[in-house]
Amino acid sequence: MSLIRTASPADVPAILGMIHDLAVYEKEPDAVVNTAEMLHSHLFGGNPQIYAHVVESPVPGDPIVGFALWFLNYSTWEGTLGIHLEDLYVRPEARGGGHGKALLRTLARIAVERGYARVEWSVLDWNEPSINFYHSLGAAPMDGWHVYRLDGGALDAFGAAATAQATTAQAGA
């Protein structure tokens, strides 16, 4: 049986290590720029905006074997909050033990207890093991939707144009 608990500051190095492991699995080994200091600040700073749960190893003294990192989203149509699961990861040697299911079940319980409308996440289209796992839980893809992202140079340029527009509007006032 999985022991799921809310992450503590002491878990940050292990969570960050698994974030790096996840990046390798998702074929983006050099994409992680997050640091232990950044992750600690976002999880445990003055006004946390992200949350994490971890799976403790059943072997005393072993590190945590998995985590779920999530944040709140909002449905304008339903007028309620939801959970967006950013990352779910279980170490390869611990897979098949029900840990991922226990993490997702914990998030579902939180959503139900708090009256949230949904738990949602993204999955890479080539990640068949995860897709099959999510289907086994009763989750379904959202047909007709595509995830878009504005980042890097495109984000900088688009944001700079808004800053220039705001500066021009203020100068004219």
From TrEMBL:
- The residues covered by the N-acetyltransferase domain are 2-165
The protein's superkingdom reads Bacteria
GO MF annotations, alphabetized: N-acetyltransferase activity
InterPro entries the record matches: Acyl_CoA_acyltransferase, Diverse_Substrate_AcTransf, GNAT_dom
- List the CDD domains hit by this protein, alphabetically: NAT_SF (cd04301)
One Pfam family recorded for the sequence: Acetyltransf_1
Q: Please verify whether the record's keywords include Transferase.
A: yes
Q: Which residues cross the membrane?
A: none
Q: Which SUPFAM superfamilies match?
A: Acyl-CoA N-acyltransferases (Nat)
The UniProt keyword set, sorted, is: Acyltransferase, Transferase
For the keyword Acyltransferase, the answer is yes
Q: Which family does it belong to?
A: Belongs to the acetyltransferase family.
Q: What is this protein called?
A: GNAT family N-acetyltransferase
What species was this sequence derived from?
Arthrobacter livingstonensis
